[in-house]
Amino acid sequence: MLADMTSATPPFPRVLVPYDGSEPARAALTLALALGKSGATLVLTTIVDETAVIADATSTVAYDPTTILEELDTAGQALLDEAAAACSKAGIVPVTATARDTPVAGILAGAHAHACNLIVMGTHARTGVERLFLGSTTVGVLRSSRVPVLTVRTVDRIDPVVFARVVVAVDDSDPSDAAAALAAKLAREAGAIVTAVSVVDPRPLYASASDIGFDVGELERELGTETEASMHAAIARAGLPDSTAVVVAEGAPPDAVIATADERNATLIVCGTHGRRGVRRLLLGSLAEHLVRTSDVPVLVVPVNVPA
Questions:
Q1: For the whole model, what pTM was predicted?
Q2: Domain of 189, in residue numbers
Q3: Is the residue at 168 inside a domain?
Q4: d(CA 223, CA 138)
Q5: Would you tell me which of 36, 85, 251, 289 could form a disulfide with 92, CB atoms 3.0–4.6 Å apart?
């Protein structure tokens, strides 16, 4: 049975919601309102990026930027008022704040300044080639945030009880352990029903096995047994109940995780992130980024070493 969703101590007591009035931001606000109704304090923030204005004002053709800066402030306040009105309609009293910074830096600084345990962000539901790319702000926050980031696409299914049925992606890695530990927290504090899924792609091994005369069927069984044993070890490390459902899926990891979430009627997918730096942070090849782009339900991306 789900825990009392009006508890004074929700899993994420303070939630940062960046808001710019776009469709993704509205989707994020809708998701955040569900968390607010469960007892979380919502911190609404709008980012006023003055960088371009200041740069122009200090160029060779100098001018007084005061009027433009005032207009930016007015527009930012209008966005906050819009988001706050949606909260008020839902019976929620939010905290509001304006950040004068670049978008990623402003969001990360806001999460720190307001002691937020979660950031909620929206993403576009793109198709074709565009689905290979997340917005630079989303990527920047996912890569650098020290707190979990809950993402939602504009077309995602948002359950009123966000943490009702959780699928967590598990493998033998530190990011996976962080995700599993957070899933255990959701089970304890929100009554989440958790399913752990690990994905194996045995096709490369099949080719090698055939070349050297191994029995492919036997190899597949051994791989499944080893993976399941590894999953149970990860579940134990995370503090998840022994009764946690375990699924060993085959295929491309993002597709297999999403298929499992669909089969389990999940309300949320939880996964870890490696938080790459340098040139590799521009590559959208990680499981987390694939899930954020393609999952039909919200995705909770957990950094390594997130506080329990």
A1: 0.85
A2: 14-303
A3: yes
A4: 36
A5: 36
Angle between helices 103-113 and 136-144 (to 10 degrees): 40
Determine, yes or no, domain membership for 7: no
Residue type, 38: S
- Apex CA 31: angle with CA 28 and CA 35, to 5°? 130
- The closest alpha carbon to 144, from 278, 247, 264, 294, belongs to 278
| CATH number of domain containing 197 | 3.40.50.12370
* Residue 274 lies inside a defined structural domain of this protein: yes
pLDDT of residue 100: 85
Integer Cα distance of 134 and 119 in angstroms? 16
**Number of domain units in the chain:** 1
d(CA 241, CA 232): 10
Query: Which residues in the chain land under pLDDT 70?
Result: 1-8, 50-66, 69, 124-135, 202-217, 219, 274-285, 307-308
Is residue 2 in some structural domain? no
d(CA 174, CA 110): 27
CA distances, 53 to each of 98, 110, 138, 186 (Å): 17, 22, 23, 44
Contact 198, 230 (CB under 8 A): yes
